[in-house]
Amino acid sequence: MKPPYQSLIDSALALQRQQEGSLPPIDCWQPPLSGDMPVLIPRDGRWFHQGAPIERQALVRLFASILKREGDEYFLVTPVEKWRIQVEDVPFQVVSLEVLAEGSPEQALCFRTNMGDQVVASSANPLRVISDNRSGEPSPYLLVRHNLEGRLSRAVYYELAELAQRYPLVKNKCHGVISRGIFFSLQ
User: E strand or H helix at 37, and its extent?
Assistant: First the structure.
């Protein structure tokens, strides 16, 4: 018999697969570069066109669905066009966290982005933390999809920090969290 929380985890993973399946097949599209488009995604995750915020969330989500990263550059792609845009940090913001089966070996950390993506931290969608060399301030990231990351909001990072435990099985005995059986360091 499955534990009662297993259906919640299965539902979260099914939702994530459904979302991924409904996205355009941008990895198959290899059009030549069409040029630069005056679109900017600053560190706070808002989208701007020619310096003005894009107010229509449906349009932002459409653009996000055709966003592709190649190296350190970002592009909006279709089967026949490829427009380079500017992204200051990463294109998505992680705005909420739900902990499923908390404290159990099956614990799953389910995140939601500002674009509505539901992502369960796992080996396929890892968490990572980079610390600023000068200030030491952490910047936590989650792989959302297609080589695209989201930066965890400060509030979400604080929620993770409250869940953090010291794991003696990990080299350097650092603090971190577990999701889907994978340990993610928060240091």
Answer: strand 35-41
